[in-house]
Amino acid sequence: MSGIRIAIVGVGNCASSLLQGIHYYREKDPENAVGLMHWEIGKYTPGDIEVVAAFDIDRRKVGLDVHKAIFSAPNCTKVFCPDLPKNGVTVRMGKILDGFSEHMKDYNDKETFSLANESELGTEEIVGVLKESGAEILLNYLPVGSEEATRFYAACALEAGVALINNIPAFIASDSEWAGRFKEKNIPLIGDDIKAQLGATITHRVLTDLFNKRGVKLERTYQLNTGGNTDFLNMLNSSRLASKKKSKTEAVQAVTAKRLKDENIHIGPSDYVPWQKDNKVCFIRMEGRLFGDVPMNLELRLSVEDSPNSAGVAIDSIRCCKLALDRGKGGVLYSPSAYFSKHPPKQFTDDEARRMTEDFIAGRRDD
């Protein structure tokens, strides 16, 4: 069976974990494949995924083989599969637009960001690369706040006839106009904003759903996150956070018994702590009332390596997208979007979304 040919925009920590994972699981058998939700999806295993094109704007990555670029600064995620063979795919200069925050330039001396000197590629060149490489699926790993750049690459995917998985909170799948454009061209689309394997949002959702199921009235809650990767550095610019806060907040609001007032729910990035690197620490507090109107509260601290936490979800998302391509199904894939994304077009509980996704994989749902 032929593999799954993907292109990546943004060769950062998430791309590093994904590419390491593809090779890591090639050497595994199903019995020893710890950390995957599915070993096989439609006869595709993680090792069937192949990167055929990649774009970035950092000078330390542009021009390098993609398997070397994923270990270049400022990437700082855990290296669990260091000996990757040369891929043969060179990271190309992408389109800048709002793909980085202006304040990042102040961190050049700290090795956190360095804009490449090469000329940007335009629509024609990027569409050409996607077509020539034979890419079937484009993964968006741009920084939070890259609204213009996300729309630019979404348009390139449409023109090239390539499926899109939007892993960031710039709304494409959950925007009816963009969703309609992918439906019209019968091109699969999954998004928006990837939901980690066991991260802050999925944990917060499960606890919120538990309150609901056990008859506990949730009165107020917060989620505070700190990290030391470039994503957290980028998010120091609060003007880039509107879609991120909306995505994370709505993911929790969607499973409350009764929608909380804005003043009673606070969810979002809190601060950049350089020495944490790719480790993300999440603090959740939930206050409610149980039997007899007696008050209770729950506090949780979660510490995870941020990028590997999303890579397993991305591997499943890619394979579901490939199933849609094989079946000739285009437009938003509602079941995988609900299960793999924080801000899908239609929200469901995680139990419902999982059942729907299993039905989609088995061919019992056309989506």
What does the secondary structure layout of this molecule look like, with pairings?
Layout: E1 4-9, H1 13-26, E2 49-56, H2 66-69, E3 91-93, H3 123-133, E4 137-140, H4 147-160, E5 163-166, H5 176-184, E6 188-190, H6 200-213, E7 217-227, H7 230-234, H8 242-253, E8 265-272, E9 279-290, E10 294-305, H9 308-327, E11 331-332, H10 334-340, H11 350-362
Helix pairs in contact: 1-9, 3-4, 6-8, 10-11
What structural class should be given to the helix and strand makeup? alpha/beta
Which residues sit in consecutive blocks of at least 5 with pLDDT less than 50? none
Q: What letter string, H or E per element, gives the SSE order? A: EHEHEHEHEHEHEHHEEEHEHH
Q: What is the helix tally?
A: 11
Biggest sheet character: 7 strands, parallel
Q: How many distinct beta strands?
A: 11
Strands side by side in the biggest sheet? 3-2-1-4-5-6-11
Q: Tell me roughly what share of residues is in helical segments.
A: 25-40%
